[in-house]
Design brief:
The structure is a single chain. By secondary structure, the chain is of the alpha/beta class. The chain has a single domain, classed as Rossmann fold. The chain is built from 9 helices and 5 strands; from the N terminus they run βαβαααβαβαααβα. Helix 1 packs across helix 9.
Length: about 190
């Protein structure tokens, strides 16, 4: 779908469990683009260090090195182009180069149910882990970058609740908008 030398960058942001990675993968496949996940980079780093995600989050609170490493990688991948990137802040970091910036959201109970199902955990375990990680991340965003999730949402073209939509419905909405943007950009 990527025609000529025009580079396409799509950024998908939002909290955990809203469907960022699922939708980013589907969009990348639909438009013949690469997919990069900030969450996968974070999980890979935790695995390399042999620690849990919560432990890596706590380590990241002590120094900006971990966040800057991950966010720097997100920016590098965006600059390379022809990519769909998902991370909590990528829409902000890629605001000057992303053709489409998307912010997905859903209520906490919906997000936690999805995470519990995906990770095969109890709702309570998923809730405790997710809320601890997000509190750490939100504090770090403010401390290291002076950003809130509202700042990220404010630079997005699409702000979409995934609460009452299934994966296919979300995908169709996002795909239609991207096709519209591509049509009007590549003319």
């Amino acid at each position: 779908m990527n025609e000529g030398n025009k580079s396409i960058v799509i950024a998908v942001s939002g909290l955990h469990g809203v469907g960022k990675t699922v939708q980013a993968k589907r969009l990348a496949e639909a438009f013949g683009l690469r997919h990069v996940s900030g969450g996968a980079i974070f999980r890979s780093l935790a695995q390399e260090k042999g620690i849990s995600l919560i432990e890596l989050s706590k380590n990241a609170e002590l120094s900006d090195e971990i966040d800057r490493l991950i966010d720097g990688r997100v920016i590098e991948e965006g600059i390379k182009g022809n990519v769909v990137i998902d991370s909590m802040l990528c829409a902000w970091f890629l605001k000057d180069i992303a053709l489409v910036r998307i912010f997905l959201f859903a209520p906490d109970n919906v997000r936690i149910e999805r995470i519990a199902k995906r990770d095969r955990k109890s709702f309570d375990d998923a809730y405790k882990e997710t809320m601890a990680r997000e509190a750490s991340e939100i504090n770090r965003f403010k401390k290291y970058y002076g950003l809130s999730l509202s700042d990220v949402k404010d630079v997005c073209h699409i702000v979409l609740s995934t609460e009452d939509l299934n994966e296919d419905e979300i995908f169709l909405i996002l795909k239609s908008y991207i096709q519209f943007k591509l049509k009007n950009t590549l003319v």
